[in-house]
From TrEMBL, chain B:
InterPro entries: BPD_transp_1_N (IPR045621), MetI-like (IPR000515), MetI-like_sf (IPR035906). It is a multi-pass membrane protein. Belongs to the binding-protein-dependent transport system permease family. Keywords: Cell membrane, Membrane, Transmembrane, Transmembrane helix, Transport. It is found in: Cell membrane. The keyword Iron-sulfur does not apply. The chain crosses the membrane at residues 9-27, 105-126, 138-166, 186-205, 239-266, 286-312. Residues 99-305 form the ABC transmembrane type-1 domain. It comes from the Bacteria. Its main location: membrane. This is ABC transporter permease. The keyword NAD does not apply.
Length: 349, 320
């Protein structure tokens, strides 16, 4: 195995399984001379063969984080601070320092880190066949010859559970169903065996049965290929089902992160608790108490001074006017809250 | 795809029949008949009713409307378009004289405007908000709003009179008829004729391209690590092309029937100038023929548009 270069003297074995690490990432958007701090200091690791789920409500910066890793941000935004390090087989690559659509970045996209999108209805180009769209990736990232593209595309579609792949490969996206399109998207993303798969709410546009099938497929890929998965979702059920690790985002910060057990069983941030309390439970009947989080997310251009969640928080105290620091409460569990001990104690009850 | 094309052509036949019927009916509804167009009013006053009837009978005018339509239609299908009442020349001769000139002018103008319009539109969209984009936008607005005869006159003033690079007008000088001799004559009227359309195509291509570039699949294409030219042209422009083709297609008949002004400005011996003189001299058979021709041009253009859009966008091909 190739030696892995580390910038700091971290223990080797601890980091050998990290595929990508993000440190204090800040991505800001600029519109009309105003600045939206969409991602405001986020750190996490994506580990090989593990699934990291990023949860949070709309607008919290989940998708921007994903786009930042792929350098697919819109023109009026930029990485303000922080590091994104991809630990490739040939040494570390600082993605944040690469030119946006430069050659180096393009060689990582699709072949090392692939992405699937929320709405498979619009994410596939309607005027090209599925086979063509898969072979485009193969053309730029593999040594396969033109005649092998088709065979490989058929193979991929079959792996993704598409029936009659030999004829389906020549079909256009409009003759695929929603679930099939998402399978085709995953086939496309997996075509060059990427080390990391970023899935941005891959099942939001699909119905529940198809959701389950897509997640099963992703889980299979993770186990068979050791692909690291970063799954963006706002569905806590999905998190419980698939995640190895969870990061809860709110207004551009990761407010709580840890293993799935730590975060779901012992939430120490009021927002995580509120999220979990707001899930209706099947079988409890129609009279169950679903506790919605009061208020709404603040205007990103007019943020509260301290803790972003303070205005909606039941645990609010005077100290919350100052942004809390991140506290490491276990080897993997971290939280950003002044009163995490009390919140944690309440949760344990 | 072939089935689609054949079906589209088959639909065209009844449409053409209905339209030819309407054009014929239109002529029937105008006051007087062929005889009254052929004989001067002075003669008409002195001529006896029997002679008029005999003349009508010899022309087949006593027969019912539908029979006459049928005879006329048969004649049309055999290329017998009748005779101009103004000069007595066969319409076939007039058209074979005039049509190539108009087609030459329109084809060159269409080619110019399509190429320039698309290229400039795409550049404008890719560099949105830049100086290039702003300059192109203003120029485009000017191109659309300033009438073409103005550009025509200015161009004559500059390139023909001041610089003397190009001839003032006309199509060919007697004795010069190689392909290259066409070029200096056609280039100025064609460019002037294409200005307005270039501007239109450019604006349309720009907005269509911007629309396409904002789609999710562009992000997908980038996320696959494709180079920018491939993302923009193969994924963006190909999709953006469909509405542009519709626009160009429906300008086609306008170019064929409507280059009247430019043909006048440049003394171009085309259908447009013939149309004007035919209307002036109440030359009904010729007017009817030219009207029928522009209607056919519209039908052909819509067929072409349908085929091209089906080629570009598979969702248009409804059959399997």
């Amino acid at each position: 195995m190739l030696p892995i270069q580390r910038s700091k003297g971290d223990a080797m074995n601890e980091h050998q399984d990290v595929a990508l690490s993000v440190k204090n990432l800040k991505t800001f958007f600029y519109t009309n001379k105003r600045c939206n701090k969409a991602v405001n200091g986020v750190s996490f690791d994506i580990k090989k063969g593990k699934t990291l789920c990023i949860v949070g409500e709309s607008g919290c910066g989940k998708s921007v984080t994903a786009s930042t890793i792929m350098q697919l941000l819109p023109t009026l935004s930029r990485i303000e601070e922080g590091e994104i390090t991809y630990h490739s087989e040939h040494g570390d690559i600082r993605i944040d320092q690469l030119e946006r659509n430069g050659e180096k970045m393009r060689s990582i996209r699709g072949s090392e880190i692939a992405m699937i999108f929320q709405d498979p209805m619009t994410a596939l180009n309607p005027v090209y066949t599925i086979g063509f769209q898969i072979s485009e990736s193969l053309k730029y990232h593999t040594d396969l010859s033109r005649s092998q593209y088709r065979t490989r595309a058929i193979e991929l579609l079959r792996d993704m559970g598409i029936s009659l792949p030999e004829s389906r490969v020549d079909d256009y996206p409009h003759s695929y169903s929603g679930g099939m399109r998402q399978r085709a998207m995953i086939a496309m993303a997996m075509s060059c065996s990427p080390k990391i798969l970023i899935a941005d709410e891959p099942t939001t546009a699909l119905d529940v049965t198809i959701q389950a099938q897509i997640f099963e497929l992703m889980d299979k890929l993770k186990k068979e290929h050791g692909t690291a998965i970063m799954l963006i979702t706002h569905d806590m059920g999905v998190v419980a089902e698939l995640a190895d690790e969870v990061a809860v985002m709110y207004m551009g910060n990761i407010v709580e992160a840890g293993t799935v057990d730590e975060v779901l069983r012992n939430p120490t941030h009021p927002y995580t608790r509120a999220l979990l309390a707001s899930i209706p439970v099947l079988g409890k009947g129609k009279n169950q108490n679903v506790e919605a989080i009061p208020g709404s997310t603040p205007d990103p251009y007019d943020r509260p001074k301290g803790c972003q969640f303070a205005d909606r928080c039941a645990y609010r105290i005077a100290a919350c006017d100052v942004m809390p620091d991140e506290t490491q409460i276990g080897s993997t569990h971290r939280v950003m809250c002044w009163r995490h001990e009390e919140v944690g104690a309440n949760a344990a009850e | 795809m072939l089935a689609y094309v054949i079906r589209r052509i088959l639909i065209l036949i009844p449409m053409a029949l209905v339209i030819s019927f309407l054009v014929y009916l239109g002529l029937e509804l105008t006051p007087g008949d062929a005889v009254s167009h052929m004989i001067s009013p002075e003669m008409m006053a002195s001529i006896s009713a029997e002679r008029l009837d005999a003349l009508r009978e010899s022309l087949g005018l006593e027969q019912p409307f539908f029979v006459r339509y049928w005879i006329w239609l048969q004649g049309m299908l055999q290329g017998n378009f009748g005779y101009s009442t103004a000069g007595g020349v066969s319409i076939h001769t007039i058209l074979s004289d005039r049509l190539p000139a108009t087609l030459e002018l329109s084809a060159v103008a269409l080619l110019f405007s399509t190429i320039f319009g698309c290229v400039l539109g795409v550049i404008s969209a890719l560099k949105r908000g830049s100086t290039t984009d702003n300059v192109l936008t203003v120029t485009g607005m000017l191109g659309v709003s300033v009438p073409e005869f103005f550009f025509g006159l200015v161009a004559i003033l500059i390139f023909a009179l001041k610089l003397q690079w190009l001839p003032v007008g006309g199509r060919l000088l007697p004795g010069y008829d190689s392909y290259w001799d066409h070029v200096p004559h056609v280039i100025m009227p064609a460019l002037v004729l294409s200005i307005m359309m270039t501007a239109g195509v450019m604006r349309y291509a720009r907005s269509s391209m911007l629309d396409a570039l904002s789609k999710e699949y562009i992000k997908t294409a980038r996320s696959k690590g494709l180079p920018e030219w491939r993302v923009n042209l193969l994924h963006g422009f190909r999709v953006a092309l469909t509405p542009v083709i519709v626009l160009i297609g429906f300008r086609l008949p306008v170019l064929i029937g409507g280059s009247v002004i430019i043909e006048q400005v440049y003394q171009w011996p085309g259908v447009g100038s013939e149309f004007i003189s035919a209307v002036r001299s109440q030359d009904y058979p010729l007017v009817m023929m030219i009207a029928l021709l522009s209607v056919m041009a519209v039908l052909t253009a819509s067929l072409l548009v349908d085929i091209l859009t089906a080629l570009i966008d598979p969702r248009v091909r409804l059959d399997k």
